[in-house]
Structure formats: structure tokens, C-alpha cells
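Before the break, one more example. Copy the sequence into your notebook; we will annotate it together after we see the structure.
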Amino acid sequence: MKKFLVFVLISVLVVLTFSGVIDEIKKRGYIIMGTEATFPPFEFVDKQTKQVVGFDVDIAKMIAKKLGVRLVIKDIAFDGLIPALMMNKIDMIVAAMTITPERAKMVSFSDPYFTAGQVIVVRKSDSFRPKSYEDLKGHRVGVQQGTTADIDVSKVKGVDIVRYTRFTDAFLDLAIGRTDAVVLDAAPAQAYVKFNPKLTISSPVLSEEKYGIAVRKEDKDLLDFINEVLKEMNSKTCYDFLVSLWF
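Here is what the structure looks like once it is written out:
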């Protein structure tokens, strides 16, 4: 009897050891995506439906579909996404997040799914037309806290940096003259400038960076699954369709 109980205990431990977060996700019936929904065309709130939509959301929906579960989206300030992941409040971060060595110490990233870069946005009415980070010296510059823009501009001495929780607030301050420029990723910059004729992009793309989907380091089964979905999307031209849809 004792041997039987030991055998059962060992069997349970083996199951617990090899069953990952995917089993938990399938059991509950949904996967939780963390993002910050102010970053068009990657993630933003549709004015008509009031739903979070975008390029990243469609990728996350594909991951959920392949898992056979629903997608639940949590809108979280960008610098709170990794803490939310570490505290098990979300299952993955799909938020146009650049893969960096510092972030990779805390989370595991999927294979890159998008190549991006930083640009500088200024008021069209001003003569100030910075072409590089060095041109920002002596000026008041808005960035979103914790983003690549924040990291890059912080390396330049002599820039008065104003950090925002949401970069939409950075654009508001730029528009009314509280700052001289805003630095952010090219795609959302183009989206905002398109609908705000008072702003313009003054610089070329100043960097090359890769976006990845972040998961907890222990969730290797989910990471492998996400990479397989991304690989399949590329092989079936689904990815190209999403690019043409959102960009």
C-alpha cells in the first residue's frame, strides 16, 4: 500500500513538473494579453467600438485562436507591463516592446516580429528641426517612461527630458508648447502626425530595434508555442496581410 501511495505521489509530481502555463490557460479558457492601448497602429482604442484593436491585438488573437481560448486584454501603463507579468496578472506582453538586454534579464522574448526605429516629432510652426539626438541638447523633450526613446535620449547630456506615463500626454504638451519635441517609434509617430497637421516628423529613423512578445522565463511552453504561431503566420503570408491592413 505504501509503495502504491509513493508511486501515485511521484506520478502527480511528474505531471506537475511537466505541465506548463498552457494547460492552465486552456483550463480557464482565456489568455491574458497585457498592453498599453495608446500606441497606434499596434494597439489603441477604436473610437466607435471602444474596443482595443491594432496590429499587436490581431497577432494576440491568432495566438489565442491556435490555443483554442478567448483573448482577454488588460490595458496597463507601459512601465507597469513587466511588473504585471511577473506578478501573474497577465500571461504575455504584446505591446510593441523592444527586445533589450535589460528587459531580457527579467522576461523571455519571442522571436522578433517587427522592426522599428525612433524618430523626432516637433511643431510644424517652429523653425526647430532636429535631425539627431544631439540636436536635442538644450531643449525640453518628451518621452514615454521606460521606452526605448527614454533610454536613448537619456544617454545624451544636456537634454531636458520630460517623462510621461502615456505618450499621448507628451503630444498634448508638445502641441501647446510645453515641450520642444517628442521622441517615439516611427509607426505611431506617423499615425499621430497624420491626424494632427500642426505636428511633423523632423528626423530620419534614428535606430533599428526589434519588437518581441514577452512571457515569464518559466513559461517556456508558451514561448515555444508563440514562436510556432509567428513562424506559421509568416509562412502563410498572414503576417503580410496584417502589415498591409494596419500600416
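The radius of gyration is 21 Å. The chain has ten helices and 15 strands. Try to locate both features in your own notes.
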